[in-house]
Amino acid sequence: MSRPPVDLSAFIKAYDVRGTVPDELSPEVTRAIGAAFADVVVLPEAAGGRPRVVVANDMRPSGPELVAGFADGLAARGVDVVLIGLASTDGLYFASGHLGVAGAMFTASHNPAQYNGIKLCRAGARPVGQDSGLAAVRDLAGEYLANGVPQVPDAERGTSTQRDMLVEYAQFLRSLVDLSAIRPLKVVVDAGNGMGGFTAPAVLGTGAGLPALPLDVVPLYFELDGTFPNHEANPLEPENLRDLQRAVVEHGADLGLAFDGDADRCFVVDENGDPVSPSAITALVGLREVERERAAGRTPTVIHNLITSRIVPDLLTAAGARTVRTRVGHSFIKAQMAQNDAVFGGEHSAHYYFRDFFFADTGMLAALHVLAALGGQPHPLSALADAYQPYVSSGEINSRVASVPAARARVVDAYVTRQGAGPVEVDELDGLTVTHWDEHPRWWFNLRASNTEPLLRLNVEAADEDIMEKVRDDVLALVREEQS
């Protein structure tokens, strides 16, 4: 008699697996997830060939044992495993795309040390999210945890092989952006004790045996340490950029780069230590990719999510691109990238997606584009970036509320029903977006609910600081009214 399945919904969410070790994630749990991934995703796509999955892990101490459990679950279902060991998340995406096999990256990105997780993808680095297989993997893994993983005969059991792909990864990225002829640049790189300390020496330096580039790299926290002894590997939080900002000024560097824990996101600071917004980087890199597409006689498409700056569609459209606005979240961006054959995509969270990189996100490739743009002209990064960040934004502001619908209704009543701020455009692609951009004063805001908590997330942008602050404060007052 079978037992009811174990409920894994607490840590298998919409985009990936993310939980604490060992109470949520253990080798037993990852073994069940590996077997379920085989049955739901890998085996149906094998098309009669020998099924394979490439697996990597970041520097977290729990990674190797969780990988071992996952690989055993795959082998139990007759799937071969290629273990590439330490890698950044975009290194795993490269392996999946280059080898043409499904993949699993063991990482909890920027989360604290007690967490680990798994990012799954189909062959060619195509995403696996809630609506593209992850929910089915979760449910089947729950059944396998309760009743055991079914075993193929010993003769059909999957095998494990090891392969180092760091050199191939570095060579591939360098083939996409040529830095050999740029002016010499000094760059401080803050890896935050994450995987950037593994990939930056290989791509930007000579760690993979590749020729030296005209870069003087000043390393910060390159030692791999999943306990994050210096600061959290989450550059989205301003306090985690302080060391980088200080080092850029102290070393007289041309710019600074900060990577998150699994090094798939890249943040940039200029020569003064001032952050360059991810929207500005989206515009800068997007224009480079648009120019390349048009030179090849193609009409480029660029994807951006709905809370990137208005400068992104403004500049890219003027340059001859078609822009597509999407919901927030990498699975939506990746789906739109593939559907539209988009050359590039960017998010406010510093995820950057490239058609040349299997439509997947890679912070390192974005960094190479920034270095190429800066080193290909004589001006400092602050001057270069000014053209890409003319507007003022609030950043994302979270408000915990007693009732998300009630708080949202107050905002709708004030701005839409009564049109207290004058005629506006309204859309609900992802949350509530209210726009007053066609006449002065120009502003817009987006209010989105969290998927997991009673939170509302507010982003505001305006043509000047005073207007941004007024809209921000007015909307926040409505959202937080019940708390006052």
From TrEMBL:
Keyword Chloroplast: no
Alpha-D-phosphohexomutase C-terminal domain: residues covered: 396-477
Cofactor section: Mg(2+)
InterPro entries for the chain: A-D-PHexomutase_a/b/a-I, A-D-PHexomutase_a/b/a-I/II/III, A-D-PHexomutase_a/b/a-II, A-D-PHexomutase_a/b/a-III, A-D-PHexomutase_C, A-D-PHexomutase_C_sf, Alpha-D-phosphohexomutase_SF
BP-aspect Gene Ontology terms: carbohydrate metabolic process
Single GO term (MF): intramolecular phosphotransferase activity
Keyword annotations of the record: Isomerase, Magnesium, Metal-binding, Phosphoprotein
Matches recorded under Pfam families: PGM_PMM_I, PGM_PMM_II, PGM_PMM_III, PGM_PMM_IV
Domain Alpha-D-phosphohexomutase alpha/beta/alpha: 13-131, 168-273, 281-391
Position of the signal peptide: none
Annotated family: Belongs to the phosphohexose mutase family.
PANTHER family named among the record's database cross-references: PHOSPHOMANNOMUTASE
Protein name: Phosphomannomutase/phosphoglucomutase
Organism this protein belongs to: Cellulomonas composti
